[in-house]
Amino acid sequence: MRKKTIPVLLAFVLILTVSVPAQRPQNQASLTDEQKLLEAMHLIRSETLYGYVEELTSEKFGGRLTGTPEFEASAEWVISHLKKWGVQPGGDNGTYRQKFPNPYTLVFPGGECSLHLPVKDGIVKKFYTYESEFLPGGTSGSGEVTAEVVFVGYGITAPELGYDDYAGVDVKGKIVLMDPEAPVTPRSADTFPKWRDYCFHQYKLENAVAHGAKGMIYNYGPIGNPNNSYREGFIYHHVGAAVVADIFAGTGRTYKATIDEIRKDLKPRSFATGKTMTVKNVTEHHPEGVGFNVIGVIPGTDPKLKEEVILIGGHLDHLGRAWNLMPGADDNATSVAVGLGVAEAIMKSAVKPRRTVLFNFFGSEEQGVAGSKYYVEHPIYPLDKILVFINMEGPGGGPRFSASGATTYTSFWSFITKANEKYIHRVVGGGPASYPARPRQDTAWFFWAGVPSLTFGASGGKSAPAPSYHTSWDRIDFIDSEGMEDMAQLLFMAVMDIADEEKVDFRVK
Ligand SMILES: [Zn+2]
User: Fold this and answer.
1) Which one of 20, 138, 214, 396 is CB 3.0 to 4.6 Å from 479, fit for a cystine?
2) Residue range(s) in the chain whose domain bears CATH number 3.40.630.10
């Protein structure tokens, strides 16, 4: 067998080596730029992008909490790809990393969330279920608090607004139960700005500590969320409806009606619930933590136009481990995968972008949108040279694409529509760019700095059997890799089109 196949193979190799070089240059020369771009576009393949998500969500990257060695390892993995394709470093001192201070907290198994129920000879504890009923606070102190729960509405003390959730209640040594956000909607453009500073998680935790509380039951999800302050000895959980209903049971009120009343007349309804709970977490805080953004640059080929920059990005980080691994597949490994797909296609394309394309995979989005804030305060290129920031959040969520900012930046959007109608054929929609409340996406800082900023996402795909936003259910099993391929191809074609256009200005006057 072997003896026979070798001559056949050799002959085949000979034909290939003789014929390919003779034909190839001729073929390439006869291709139009559009055909060359389409060749590069088809290098973007769903199985490759799926493989990237698989890697980023793997156990060894530990959920990519910024500051941890696992985040560092995931960044190194991203950088190895950028390097391989020849994307240039855009970070500090010729590296791909832009560093910033980033304290972080590790959350280990071993916590407890329980309600004490009085019985004849003492109490029995009702234990709540990890993840479906509670999740440990992402920046909780380590330790255990058993105390009465005091309901404090939104946990806000705003003397200038005549509003104080802590008035008339004593929370010293107690556990406070509160809602996130503020009692007015961010959509109320006239009143919300006065409340804005009070809707941050950090403020609420600090205010609880300032009033002497020892622990917190935060009615938030339950989702994992490391976007908060750390105070040693202050222990808290994120809980869902089951815990809240039990705390309110027998008080003559319901949680929802009470919150509705507060929102209606902006009068606090705080009270001591008479319920005792235990909150316990095992954590380790790292104040020395350092985070970074991963930045790669593809310089433009036109001596003048290369000063103008198209920024593509998405955050690389996720929640780490909140006991269990939080893999963060669609939040936001899919964005990194799509970004890498676009980067590879540009590097391998026979047509080069005339403008500069900058890739930024942010750190610490999950810890207060800190990486993008740092970038905007320390930009590599002047912010007024960034034509557009194409951000992504969850582009693997299904077949329907949309972008916030689509209806704000209509001249940019026409490039997306054109590429979609010509090559991709997806349902693509979107709404305005709007960031009235606390920043919740990397685009917020850029938008406030005047940079046209859009966040692309996708929806309508397979859903997990339990809520997947910021839980361990955000797994690769539920991502749509065909959608990711199309998203990457769409952005590649639109970006190359923009990079080649004579004059571009997407800023809204
Ligand atoms: Zn997130």
Assistant:
1) 396
2) 36-102+289-500
- Residue 394 Cα to ligand 1 middle (Å): 9
What digits encode the pLDDT tens for the residues 159-202? 999 999 999 999 999 999 999 999 999 999 899 999 999 999 99
Would the pTM of this model clear 0.70, i.e. be above it? yes
- Please, which residues have CB within 8 angstroms of residue 485's CB and are 6 or more apart in sequence? 44, 45, 46, 49, 341
User: Residue 366 Cα, ligand 1 centroid: separation in angstroms?
Assistant: 6
Burial of 301-323, coded b for 16+ CB within 10 Å and e otherwise, reads ebeebbebbbbbbbbbbbbbbbb
Q: What is the pLDDT of residue 28?
A: 67
Q: How far is the CA of 32 from the centre of ligand 1 (A)?
A: 42
Q: How far apart are CA 379 and CA 450, in angstroms?
A: 13
The alpha carbon of 319 and the centre of ligand 1 are apart by a number of angstroms equal to 8
- Residue 438 CA to ligand 1 center (angstroms) comes to 14
Q: How confident is the model at residue 2 (pLDDT cuts 50, 70, 90)?
A: very low
Q: What is the Å distance from ligand 1's center to 244 Cα? A: 24
Distance 28 CA to ligand 1 centre (A): 43
**Contact partners, residue 218, CB within 8 Å, separation at least 6:** 137, 178, 180, 201, 204, 236, 237, 238, 239
295 dihedral zone (left: phi>0; alpha: psi -120 to 50; beta)? beta
Ligand 1 centroid from CA 192, angstroms: 24
Smallest CA-to-CA distance from 222 within 131, 327, 141, 115 is with 131
Give the architecture (CATH level 2) of 110-283.
3-Layer(bba) Sandwich (3.50)
How does residue 136 score in pLDDT terms, banded at 50, 70 and 90?
Answer: very high
Q: Say how many Å lie between the CA of residue 205 and the centre of ligand 1.
A: 20
Residues with CB under 5 A from ligand 1 (ion): 331
Q: 318 CA distance to ligand 1 centroid (A)? A: 6
3-state DSSP assignment of residue 114: strand
CA of 396 to the centre of ligand 1 (A): 14
Q: Which CATH superfamily is domain 36-102+289-500 in?
A: Zn peptidases (3.40.630.10)
Tell me: pLDDT of 466 over 60.
yes
Q: What is the largest CA-CA distance in the chain?
A: 94
Q: Where in the chain is the domain with CATH 3.50.30.30?
A: 110-283
How many angstroms separate the CA atoms of 97 and 294, rounded? 5
Q: What is the sign, positive or negative, of the torsion defined by CA atoms of 470, 475, 479, 481?
A: positive
